[in-house]
C-alpha cells in the first residue's frame, strides 16, 4: 500500500491504471486495477477526470490521416508559455502520432524560422524523415496569406518530400492528442515552475520510457517507436523538374515569364519552381510535388490552386485553406 502511494506521489497526474502498470513493471506482480483505485481513493489521491469529447464529436480533421505506423505523421506545436521568475519558457513539442513518442521538448531561444529549422535539422538527423507533418496555421509552421499556407519552414519540409497537414484555424481539437500532451506538461512541469532544459529532458525521458499508454496496450512509446527508414541526407540544394521549364523565385517572391513578373510567395524565395504546359491556354506551376497554381497564357496572370480565380481577384490576401495530401 505504501509503495502504491509513493508511486502516485511521484506521478501525481497518473491514474490507477498507469500506476498499476508501473508497479507491475517494477515488482513483477500487481493487484487488480480496482484495488489500486481503492487505495488511492482512500488516501485522497484521486480526482474525477473530466470527460473529453470524442473525435467524432469534436470535429476531427476530415482529410487528416490517422497514422498506421511510426513516422507516418509527426505533430508539432509550441506549448503555451509560462514564467519562472524572469525566465520565459515556450517549448517546441514534436510527437510521433502513432507511437506517442515525444521526439522533442525543447526550450528554444526564439520561435523564429531559423531557430526552429535548426531543431528540426537535428531531429531529422537523429530519427529520419516523417511522411507527413501536422501543425496548426500559426507561425512559423504556416503563413495565413501565402499560397497553400506555405511558410519558409513548411516550404523546406515540402522540398524534403514531407507532406503537410493542418488543422482548421481556431480548432485545436483537430490536433487533440497533441493538445492532451500539452495538458500533461501544464500539470507536471508548468504547475511546478520547471522551465530549464534539464527538467524538460527528464520529463521527456519519463514520458517515453516509463509512462504506459492505454492506446498502446499499456506499452510505453519507446517500446513502439523506431527510427524512420527515410534517411535525412542534409539540406536540399536544388529541386529538379524533369521535362519542365524552371524559374527561380526571387527575394520578392516573383518569377519572370515572357518578360512578365508573376508573384507566387516570398516564402519560396530562393527556391526553383517547375512550369509545365497543361493546355494551350495555361501552364501549371509546381513546387516539388505541390501544385501551386496556373498561369493563364492569355492574361499572363497566376491563379492559385488553393483558392478560386474569383476569390483571387476579389481577395488577394485571403487566408490559405488547410493543406492535406489527398
Supply the key terms.
326 residues; alpha+beta; Nucleotidyltransferase, domain 5; 3 domains; five-stranded mixed sheet; five-stranded antiparallel sheet; 10 helices; disordered C terminus
Average pLDDT rating: 82
* Percentage of residues in strands: 15-25%
Radius of gyration of CA atoms, rounded to a whole number: 24 Å
Distance between the termini: 53 Å
CATH level-1 class of the largest domain? Alpha Beta
As laid out across the biggest beta sheet, the strand order is 5-4-1-6-7
Give the CATH topology of the largest domain: Nucleotidyltransferase, domain 5
Q: In DSSP terms, counting alpha (H) and pi (I) runs of 4 or more, how many helices?
A: 10
- What share of residues is helical? 25-40%
CATH superfamily of the largest domain, by name, is: Ribonuclease H-like superfamily/Ribonuclease H
Q: Spell out the helices and strands N to C.
A: HHHHEEEEEHEHEHHHEEEEEEEH
Q: Which runs of at least 5 residues are low in confidence (pLDDT < 50)?
A: 50-63, 310-326
Number of domains: 3
Second rung of CATH, namely the architecture of the largest domain: 2-Layer Sandwich
Give me the count of strands: 14
Structural class: alpha+beta
Report the principal-axis shape.
elongated
The major beta sheet can be summarized as: 5 strands, mixed
What would your notes on this structure say?
The protein is of the alpha+beta class. The chain has three domains: 2-42, no CATH class; 63-224, Nucleotidyltransferase, domain 5; 245-314, no CATH class. The protein has helices at residues 2-10, 16-27, 33-42, 55-58, 113-127, 152-159, 176-188, 197-209, 221-224, 309-314, and strands at 73-78, 82-84, 87-89, 92-96, 102-106, 132-135, 163-166, 245-248, 254-257, 260-263, 272-277, 282-287, 290-296, 301-304. The chain has a five-stranded mixed β-sheet. A five-stranded antiparallel β-sheet has the order 8-11-12-13-14, with no helix packed on it. Helix 1 crosses helix 2 and helix 2 (16-27) packs across helix 3 (33-42). The chain starts with a helix and ends in a 12-residue tail after the last helix.
